[in-house]
Write a structure and sequence with these properties.
Blueprint: E1 3-6, E2 12-16, E3 19-23, E4 44-46, H1 52-55, H2 58-65, E5 68-72, H3 73-81, E6 85-89, E7 94-97, E8 100-106, E9 113-116, E10 119-121, E11 127-133, E12 136-140, H4 150-156, E13 161-165, H5 174-184, E14 188-192, H6 204-213, E15 217-218, E16 226-228
Parallel strand pairs: 3-4, 4-5, 5-6, 12-13, 13-14, 14-15
Antiparallel strand pairs: 1-2, 1-16, 2-3, 7-8, 8-11, 9-10, 11-12
Bound molecules: nickel (II) ion and manganese (II) ion.
Residues 49, 51, 54, 109, 143, 170 line the site of nickel (II) ion.
Amino acid sequence: MPTLQFLSHSCFRFAIGQTTLLIDPFFSGNPKAPADAANINPDYILLTHGHGDHLGDAIAIAKRARSTIIAPNELAVWSQRQGVKAHPMHIGGGWDFPFGRVKLTIAHHGSGIGPGPNGWEYAGNPCGYLITAEGKTVYHAGDTALFYDMKLIGEMHPIDVALLPIGDNFTMGVTDAIKAVEFLKPRRVVPMHYDTFDLIKADPGRFAVGARSHGCEPVILAIGESLDY
Ligand code: NI
Ligand code: MN
């Protein structure tokens, strides 16, 4: 049975058999990050986009742990230029990795890296991920607005666990995320991307009530807490 662990913000660790995945490993500068999280040695690091609260510590971890980064093409090639292994993909495309299948979905957001001294670096489009392994599918929405095609994602890929941002301001807020649950029809839903900073304070309890009204089981994970799915 695969396990996912919430490591604050939009970061999750997946244990699938002997394989460890990290998605959006934002620890440095994250006031909610678990103290030991940056010491995880993942086989793969999935990145939804280039913003600092998602790209985070990915390059440093990948260098130390020799992880392979999975990302949209432009962000994957940027990662290769930093000296790490990367598997480029793009939206709508899937690939069968040894641990399972990864498919990229759309996300309505930005994906610039920086800004540095020369401004923003281009990192292509942001994405979400469908991760199917051991007969179970997880949907990590990344940072996104609500979009109607979530209905199509749910129709074509029965979702066991959806990981949805609820923090508002930069992404869906609670009301839109409840609508996303209606569209996606996941078996369970975990809220993310809230309460890390003042700008994204949200009420997961109100989200849970809304999710339940659509027949979905809400799972509010404390930071560090795990879920077998
Ligand atoms: Ni973002
Ligand atoms: Mn973000």
